[in-house]
Amino acid sequence: MDTLKNVRKSWESFAEENPHWAVLTARDSGETDAFYESGIHDVESVLKEGETQQIEINKGAALDFGCGVGRLTFPLCAHFEKVVAADISTKMIELARAHEKCPTNASFYNVKDSKLSGLDRNSFDFVLSLIVLQHLPTKHAKSYIKAFMRVSRVNGLIVFQIPTARKKIETGKSVFWADKPLTWDNPSFGKLCYRYVFRTIMWPRRRLRLPILSNELRYRLDCLWRKVTGKRIMLMNFLRIDQIKKIAKKNGCEIVAIKKDDRTGEGYTSNLFFIRKFQESK
Ligand SMILES: C[S@@+](CC[C@H](N)C(=O)[O-])C[C@H]1O[C@@H](n2cnc3c(N)ncnc32)[C@H](O)[C@@H]1O
Question: Do residues 234 and 271 both lie within one domain?
C-alpha cells in the first residue's frame, strides 16, 4: 500500500472540509485573528530560542514544511528573504496562496515524495516544521528529517517538532497496589497467602482490561481499519530521541537543543528539536 498516497488523500479531504480545524484541532474551527496570531507567536518563539542557544541564523531562504494554510509561512516571510512553503495537499497550498496575508516572497511547493526530491541540496538557511511529522508514518517522518538535512545549508538551522514518546496508559496498577497494601492490617500468614494468590490471579486481568478499553488501542485499531478501507486518517506517531540523534549523526548534523513543548496534548511527550548542519550530508 502506498502510505503517502493515503496521507495525501486524507489531507486533501481535511483541507476541503475544514482546513483551520485540520491545522489546529485543539482550537475552534474556522479562521480567526487568533489563528494567524498563533503562527506569529510560534515563529518568534522558535527564532528567539535559536538566539538563546546562540545559533546564528542567516536570514536568506527558509523552508516551511507542511505549511497548511500559511499560519507559519506568512510570519516567516517577515524574517527571511524568501520562504518556500511545502505541503502534500494542493488544496492547502491553494488556500495559503490565495490568502490576503500571503506575502510576495512566499513560493509554494507541492510535496510528491518523502525525499523532497524537487528541492535542491544546500538551499535553505532555516527549515521549520511544526505539527506535521507526528501525522506521518514513521518511515516517512524519518525520511523527511533526512531530507531536511540534505536541503539545509552548512551552518543552517533545522527546527522541527515531533512527539518522542507515548505517555504511559493508566492501567490501574498503582491503584491496585496502593489502595490495599498487603500488610495493611497485619494479617495472619494464611490470610496473607490467600491475598497474594488472589491478587496474582487478578493482576493480568487488571493489567489487560484498561489498555484494551483505552483510547489509544481503539485509536490504533481505527487507524488500521481506515488504512485497510482507504478512509482518511490523521495519524499520531512518534520517533524516539535516539532515532533522531542517529539520523542527525549520519547526515552531518548535531542536535543543539531539545525543548519540551505541549503541541500534542496529554497522550504524548512532544519535543522541539534544534539541529545544526555542520558538514555536508551524504
Ligand atoms: C496540522 S497541519 C500543520 C500546518 C502548519 N505546519 C502549521 O503549524 O500551521 C499539517 C500540515 O501538514 C501537511 N502534510 C501532511 N503530510 C505531509 C507530507 N507528507 N508532506 C508535506 N506536507 C504534509 C498537511 O497537508 C497539513 O497542511
Answer: yes
Together in a domain, 16 and 108: yes
Residues 117 and 194 both lie in one domain: no
Tell me whether residue 220 is in a domain: no
Question: Are 44 and 180 part of one and the same domain?
Answer: no
Q: Residues 161, 54: one domain?
A: yes
Count structural domains, the chain: 2
pLDDT digits (tens, 9 = 90+) for 189-219: 887 787 778 777 777 766 665 555 555 666 7
Average pLDDT over the chain reads 87
Q: For a pocket test of ligand 1, which of 87, 92, 110 has the largest count of ligand atoms closer than 8 A to its C-beta?
A: 87
CA-proximal residue: ligand 1, atom 12 (nearest): 66
Q: Could you tell me the distance, in angstroms and rounded to a whole number, from the CA of residue 65 to the centre of ligand 1? A: 7
Provide residues with CB under 6 Å of ligand 1: 7, 11, 23, 66-68, 71-72, 86-89, 92, 111, 130-132, 135-136
Residue 28's pLDDT band (cuts 50, 70, 90): low
Residues 184 and 242 in one domain: no
The parent domain of residue 163 ranges over 3-168+230-277
Q: Which residues of 170-187 are buried (b: 16+ CB within 10 A; e: fewer)?
A: eeeeeeeeeeeeeeeeee
